[in-house]
Amino acid sequence: ATWSVAIFSTVIGYVASDFLNKDILIGLAIINPIYFICMMVGAMKTMQISLSVILGAVLGPAFYFISPEWSILFGGFFAGTIAFFIGEKK
Q1: CA atoms lying within 13 Å on the CB side of residue 17
Q2: How far, in Å, CA of 83 to CA of 34, rounded?
Q3: Which of the two residues, 12 and 41, has the higher pLDDT score?
Q4: pLDDT at 90 over 80
Q5: What's the rounded Cα separation, in Å, for the pair 39 and 44?
C-alpha cells in the first residue's frame, strides 16, 4: 500500500507541477526535508540518534565543499558511523 501511494503521488505531482506556480513548487520541495528533520528531532531519545543528527547537520555542509553532489550521503554515512561507534563504546 505504501509503495502504491508513493508511486501514485509521484505521478500526480509530476503532472500537477506544470500547472503550479514556481513559488508553490519551491515550497513543496522544502516541505519534505523539514518534515524529515522534525521526525528526527522527535526521535532523539538516545545518545546515538542525537549524535547522528547533530553530526549530520555539521558534516553535511562540510562535505559540500569537497563534493557538492555527494555531501548529504557522505555526511549522513560518516555521522551515522561515528555515532554508532561512540554509542557502542558507552
Answers
A1: 11
A2: 22
A3: 12
A4: no
A5: 9
| Rounded Cα distance, 42 and 34, in Å | 12
Per-residue pLDDT reduced to its tens digit, 33-73: 888 888 888 888 888 888 988 999 999 999 999 999 999 99
Q: Is 55 exposed, middle or buried (0-12, 13-18, 19+ CB in 10 A)?
A: buried
The single residue listed with the C-alpha cell 555542509 is 61
Q: State the Cα–Cα distance between residues 57 and 62, nearest whole angstrom.
A: 9
**Grid coordinates of 22:** 514556481
Helix ranges (H only) for the chain are 2-16, 22-42, 47-64, 71-89
